[in-house]
Amino acid sequence: MKGFEEAKLTLINNVTSTFNLIWAVMRHAPNAHIIKLGTLGEYGTPNIDIEEGWIDIEHKGRKDRFLYPRQGSSLYHTTKIHDTDLLWFYVRTYGLTVTDLMQGPVYGVFTSETQEHPELLPWFDYDDIYGTVVNRFVVQAVAGIPLTVYGKGGQTRGFLNIRDTLQSIILVAENRPKPGQMRILNQFTEQFNIVEIAEMVKEAGTSLGIEVKVAHLENPRIELEEHYYKAADDGLTELGLKPTILTEHVLHEMLAYAQKHQHLIDKTLIMPRVRWSHALQHV
Amino acid sequence: MKGFEEAKLTLINNVTSTFNLIWAVMRHAPNAHIIKLGTLGEYGTPNIDIEEGWIDIEHKGRKDRFLYPRQGSSLYHTTKIHDTDLLWFYVRTYGLTVTDLMQGPVYGVFTSETQEHPELLPWFDYDDIYGTVVNRFVVQAVAGIPLTVYGKGGQTRGFLNIRDTLQSIILVAENRPKPGQMRILNQFTEQFNIVEIAEMVKEAGTSLGIEVKVAHLENPRIELEEHYYKAADDGLTELGLKPTILTEHVLHEMLAYAQKHQHLIDKTLIMPRVRWSHALQHV
User: Fold this and answer.
1) Count of the separate structural domains present in chain B
2) Which of A47, A276, A44, A8 has its CA nearest to residue A157?
3) What is the pLDDT of residues A43-67, one digit of tens each?
4) A237 inside domain
5) B15: which chain A residues are within 8 Å (Cβ-Cβ)?
6) ipTM, interface predicted TM-score of the complex
7) Chain B: residue whose CA lies nearest to A24
8) Which residues from chain B sit within 8 angstroms of residue A48, using beta carbons?
9) Residue B282 has what pLDDT?
């Protein structure tokens, strides 16, 4: 953990803003369709298939349907679970209408909008705290830093291109759930583990003449480095999502972008600075 | 709901105080055994048997163990779910040691301590917000108010005498879980529905010469009035809990206590003042 104040801010910020949003909608626009960007990280890494938000449980000869069990691997993800529980309470009790998008780690920088004007480019995090792994590896490759695989690198997640984040939100906004429904969709297009991503970035870099090395660092997090992972993603496909695949072309585009801005890369932000496995490092 | 400010206070108070406690223990007493009074209300009224905190799920040929799914019937219960998720995150990640007691509605006023001195008597709520149903019915019987059954009165819960609340906490404190374990125990001794409780109070009152009527009011809450309910309670029995049963003698003791203090009963606190089924009554 970083420390008490950071952890408390994470908790209070997340639950309070979701709570305030819920009440604002109840007061002023009770029929509004709330689209929430949640995270696939709420599910953690269970040893059974991850469904889209819900699971039917048969137990001792009886059946019921429940929110799919959630146990995230960080406090941040735990507060996202709080958000889900809050939304589900207000949906089932007071009839709000919600789509909760359980999004995987996003990569990429370009969308159809950004090609119209560079000022529409999104924020691009590559640091150890906010940076997602594909973006980080691309920057590390360009900066000549061995790719920072944590531990064995068998950590598997569902990933998506930022183009598909936007495509998904548009599809969801254009296809409302039923009034009073809490629709939960898993938002990702492909599953990879960290070693596979490192290898793809290495190959894409090599073909551009960049020498890329891969390092296995001591893992600063508490997480399984080898585990089962199979998440459903039918919902957005049924709404019409056309996946943007993580091809060598996509990686070349990102590597070229990082090379163009190479002089801006702050190398002190690459290596892990927080040991999440130590609760009290800053106390 | 009462209103935005009351709801926000409920949310922030509960999650912040659990969070602060967790960090205080991590900093100053990481091996302490945290005993938390949770509530059976976290589970809601599922259509499958309620286990003690955990459930083994078999799904598409694979298995894993999860927190038993929780969906409480009020914001208060939802914040208790938040507490459970927070504790479970810090237990599995940083090795805290916790017993979470999922307590049902408590009734009664006397314990072995209170018989030593009347100043040791606990608070006795009989109002519409904080009062639990057995205590409320006893006061209503003495005050000559028909017992306030909400709707059909088939709402079933697990109940316990205040003597068994204390007995349970003592047993749990004397029997620590393993270090780094999150032990969850359901804390109740008997299941009743509301009509059964009303009938028991009526019979006990009648045998003392009190005329008791039963009324079915429009339900101010959103809850199932007829449902399956079967909760496990083996854990505390195994630790040695000797249940105090809700006998006519126990009800006579409570009725006599209410009669003794009859002049203190505020009849304006009996009927439901908050329509929980209306989200925005005070907005």
Assistant:
1) 1
2) A44
3) 999 999 999 999 999 999 999 999 9
4) yes
5) 11-12, 15, 82
6) 0.95
7) B4
8) 57-60, 62-64
9) 45
